[in-house]
Design a protein that fits this description.
268 residues; mainly alpha; 2 domains; globular
């Protein structure tokens, strides 16, 4: 790992820490922690732009990996920004649950959570920094496979998010479970394809010497989506608000990996 790599990681740390501090200040002012869902991917977009400008690697590879991260992060930021504007001042159920779980020093807790997001951003920036510093000219089969998988993941995540937003926008669907499109095959297809984006970036990193060490990236994202800020935090309020309808949906629908619905399926 050359000096350019460490310079890019330092930039990621500065951008991540600074962006999460600003996001926390804004969230505290408007009393809505959902701001972090917009700030985090925007910070990633800034890191990707910086990697493209500063990275000393081959132009084609640097362009591809930076474009993959930039497009993914910008789409996610726009999606969450639209949701925040539409729902404010109502906070996302994940953060409402955290308020109930940690009723004392709420904003100190959110400060720690936001900065933890900054640490995650730095860790996930490693494959970007490595590949943007790779001087090899030709793309490897791993990198081509990573690009193909990224395209699949982006289409899947965009389609899943759009389907859910259209469903929720119709007043007649109030109190109903969205089981349309990809949501018929997975309770969280948006999270599945989000994870697949990071599998794709890991595959792309395998075309760079020592890129295998970034295998922890899809693992971090999977743990986060499954047990920290994703599935575990989303399903509890859904069960409370939708009751038997959501329990029936859980029983017949795969929790994560899209699969054919069954008459009864375990909820874990």
């Amino acid at each position: 790992m050359n000096d350019a790599f460490w310079y890019l990681i330092s930039i990621a740390a500065a951008v991540g820490g600074g962006a999460m501090l600003v996001a926390w200040l804004i969230a505290k002012r408007i009393n809505n922690a959902s701001v972090v869902d917009v700030a985090w991917p925007l910070a990633f977009a800034a890191v990707a732009a910086g990697a493209y400008l500063i990275g000393e690697g081959a132009v084609l590879r640097k362009t591809m990996v930076c474009a993959m991260v930039f497009v993914w992060s910008l789409r996610l930021a726009i999606h969450h920004g639209i949701r925040l504007r539409r729902r404010h001042p109502r906070e996302d159920s994940r953060y409402l649950a955290l308020r109930e779980q940690y009723p004392h020093h709420i904003w100190l807790m959110f400060f720690a959570l936001f900065q933890l997001q900054a640490v995650q951003l730095v860790l996930l920036s490693v494959p970007l920094a490595m590949t943007a510093s790779n001087l090899q000219v030709a793309l490897s089969p791993w990198e081509i496979g990573g690009i193909a998988l990224w395209l699949v993941a982006m289409v899947g995540e965009t389609f899943a998010d759009a389907t859910l937003e259209r469903f929720r926008a119709r007043s007649e669907n109030a109190g109903r479970v969205c089981d349309r499109g990809l949501w018929r095959f997975s309770r969280h297809p948006n999270y599945f394809f989000e994870w697949l984006v990071w599998v794709a970036i890991f595959l792309f990193a395998l075309g760079t010497p020592d890129g295998w060490i970034t295998v922890y990236c899809p693992v971090i994202v999977l743990v986060s989506l499954w047990g920290v800020s994703g599935i575990a935090a989303v399903e509890a309020p859904m069960l409370r608000s939708l009751g038997p309808a959501y329990e029936a949906y859980r029983q017949r629908t795969s929790p994560f990996v899209p699969w054919f619905p069954g008459r009864k399926r375990g909820s874990h």
